[in-house]
From TrEMBL:
Name the record gives this protein: Uncharacterized protein
InterPro entries with a match to the protein in the record: DsrEFH-like, Sulphur_relay_DsrE/F-like
Length: 105
């Protein structure tokens, strides 16, 4: 099972975390990508999100470069586990073309 969880609102990060935890309870081998863009990009700087990323190191974390620029988030501020991608929207399309199911939080 391959799933991309998309978050573009800062207030939806908690919902995304809960969705990931619930998915992994049912499907522990699921391949999950958490992709943040828009204002949610700032979430990668929050202590609770950093803690979550350490606890769930088997998840792929992706950050939109365009959103980082718009919200003044620099690559060096992000955890090593976060992959910076050029465009969140393009990556969402690419992942769906690769068979990932799309979940919007």
């Amino acid at each position: 099972m391959k799933i991309v969880i998309h978050v573009d609102e800062l207030g939806k990060i908690r919902e995304a975390r809960h969705n990931i935890e619930n998915l992994l309870l049912s499907e522990p081998e699921a391949k999950i990508v958490l992709l943040m863009n828009g204002e949610a990009i700032q979430g990668y700087l929050l202590p609770r999100v950093i803690k979550f990323m350490k606890e769930y190191s088997n998840i792929s974390y992706q950050a939109c470069h365009h959103s980082m620029r718009n919200f003044h988030v620099r690559s060096k501020q992000l955890a090593e586990s976060v992959e910076v991608i050029d465009s969140g929207v393009i990556r969402l399309v690419e992942l769906q073309e690769q068979g990932y199911s799309y979940i919007k939080c």
